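Quick review question:
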């Protein structure tokens, strides 16, 4: 069901997960002056552009059009499904279904993002039959995912090399090899992913997004992708290449700092008239960051921890590459303005 230029316009908050998509979705609704109590906007994450419904073999069907109509009101279809961002199936087909969609991407310091994902999973299990939450410490979760990513993705592991003994070497090898997309075979070639990178992707949805609690009391090493989701630059380039000027990239830190300015920026991006935020609208925008801020400062990762040091090495080149694309966003990440932490081995 291609976009035929009708009156429905689409604005999608597509990620990155745990980088403030809930916050940005709420700001988007206020920027469009859409009530979040309306049935069309009560659900933040629609997910119907993933593997079913409005993608793939279903995208030309009446069922897809009915879904779009169900979730559109006042001329707008709004979706806030963060997993779209790293799903190459959607990257390859969304422009067919909604080629005029406006995409909002929110980024976050990858170390803070990893810790936020772990902190959320500490609260409770997503599967009622399994033990409550991620029972590991953050350091243990980082160590296990690094090890898992090395075995899945690194050229060295594929060649039969021994796992690096030093955490810094392990992090560098993972960073040089990882391709954290969900990419079916048809999308791999279009993305230019190497054969080994394709192998790295193979179990993204089947294993990495499940808890997969084992009978011996351990979790799968990369469950929920605390680390893999932090590699965003290649995916951002792919989305911008496909949608051009229809992509707005924001930083979670900037959205929190000034939500009224973000709302105004969104309106300009969507080609809407400028408005003055005052009274109830200004109060609502100013309150959003407080209401949706689920990670108080007291729960953030301590800079002196082992994980902070090894993750600074893991993401060093990724952050440098991202800075080349969106310097203003990366400049707000205080962790990356200081000296490198090389005291991570052991």
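Suggested answer, residue by residue:
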């Amino acid at each position: 069901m291609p976009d035929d230029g009708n009156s429905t316009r689409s604005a999608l908050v597509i990620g990155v997960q745990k980088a403030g998509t809930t916050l940005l979705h709420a700001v988007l609704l206020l920027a469009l002056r859409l009530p979040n109590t309306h049935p069309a906007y009560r659900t933040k994450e629609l997910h119907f552009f993933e593997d079913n419904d409005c993608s793939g073999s279903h995208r030309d069907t009446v069922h897809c059009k009915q879904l779009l109509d169900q979730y559109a009101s006042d001329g707008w279809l709004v979706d806030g499904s963060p997993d779209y961002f790293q799903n190459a199936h959607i990257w390859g087909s969304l422009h067919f279904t909604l080629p005029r969609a406006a995409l909002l991407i929110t980024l976050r310091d990858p170390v803070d993002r990893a810790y936020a994902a772990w902190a959320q999973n500490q609260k409770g299990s997503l599967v009622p039959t399994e033990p409550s939450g991620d029972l590991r410490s953050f350091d243990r979760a980082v160590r296990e995912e690094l090890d898992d990513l090395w075995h899945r993705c690194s050229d060295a592991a594929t060649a039969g090399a021994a796992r690096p003994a030093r955490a810094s070497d392990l992090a560098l090898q993972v960073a040089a090899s990882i391709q954290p997309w969900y990419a079916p075979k048809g999308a791999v070639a279009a993305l230019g992913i190497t054969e080994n990178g394709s192998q790295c992707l193979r179990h993204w949805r089947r294993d990495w997004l499940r808890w997969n609690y084992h009978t011996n009391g351990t979790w799968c090493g990369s469950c929920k992708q605390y680390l893999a989701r932090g590699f965003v630059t290649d995916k951002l380039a792919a989305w911008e290449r496909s949608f051009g000027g229809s992509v707005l990239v924001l930083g979670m830190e900037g959205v929190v700092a000034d939500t009224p300015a973000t709302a105004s920026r969104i309106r300009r991006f969507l080609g809407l008239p400028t408005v003055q935020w005052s009274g109830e609208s200004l109060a609502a925008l100013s309150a959003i960051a407080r209401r949706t801020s689920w990670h108080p400062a007291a729960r953030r990762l301590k800079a002196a921890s082992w994980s902070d040091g090894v993750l600074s090495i893991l993401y060093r080149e990724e952050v440098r590459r991202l800075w080349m694309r969106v310097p203003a966003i990366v400049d707000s990440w205080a962790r990356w303005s200081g000296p490198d932490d090389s005291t991570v081995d052991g």
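Why it works: Confidence is low (pLDDT under 50) at residues 1-6, 213-217. The radius of gyration is 20 Å.
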